[in-house]
TrEMBL record:
One of its GO terms (molecular function) is DNA binding. PANTHER family: HTH-TYPE TRANSCRIPTIONAL REPRESSOR NEMR, TRANSCRIPTIONAL REGULATORY PROTEIN. Residues 24-43 bind DNA. This is TetR family transcriptional regulator.
Length: 192
């Protein structure tokens, strides 16, 4: 593993488990087995390091979701696409512990202090909502209220996963989302 990756991994773990402001650059460098000087060769600031971790986490989640979406397209009877973010989150938690939403932790500690971090988190949440809208469209739904409902369910799982078993929460949220989509299908059928 490269020194760059060592720093990212160490910082991510420390930020997630100890907080952003409580974690100093010296501790990150020490945990990564390097010096502060080397850390600053890779990242201009602690905030840049945080942004890189946010981007890396988002990219990893999108990769999981894209794999599920591609696999779903190959099925003879595909699942509802709008349920795939819940499956991706469950897959995510198979290899990662949870202390809640990393993005919301970053926002809580940097709101009003660092617009780049604040903007990244807000844009991430908007991208997630847009993904629900896109997936719902593939399932034949067009209302944004359902996208908001599913987003709330997914965010709830992420927040509560710090207190409860993530796998169980994902399964419960998946069932709630599936019921929401079934109820909306029934409503649409009655309208027609």
């Amino acid at each position: 593993m490269s020194k760059h990756e060592d720093i990212l991994n160490s910082a991510e773990w420390l930020f997630y488990n100890e907080g952003f402001h409580r974690t100093g650059v010296a501790k990150i460098a020490n945990t990564a087995g390097t010096t502060q000087r080397t850390l600053y060769k890779h990242f201009a600031s602690k905030e840049e390091l945080i942004l890189c971790i946010l981007e890396r986490r988002e990219t990893s989640y999108w990769h999981l979701l894209n794999q599920l979406e591609a696999a779903n397209q190959r099925l003879p009877l595909p699942k509802l696409y709008a349920l795939l973010p819940f499956q991706a989150l469950q897959d995510w938690y198979q290899t990662r512990a949870s202390c809640g939403c990393f993005f919301m932790h970053a926002l809580a500690e940097y709101r009003g202090k660092n617009s780049a971090i604040e903007n990244y988190v807000e844009n991430h949440k908007q991208r997630m909502r847009a993904t629900f809208v896109r997936l719902l469209s593939k399932d034949g739904f067009s209302d944004t209220t359902t996208a908001n409902t599913l987003m709330i369910l997914l965010e709830g799982v992420t927040a509560l996963s710090a207190l409860q078993t993530a796998n169980e929460l994902c399964q419960q949220a998946y069932q709630c989302a599936e019921n929401t989509l079934k109820n909306n299908t029934i409503k649409e059928t009655k309208k027609a």
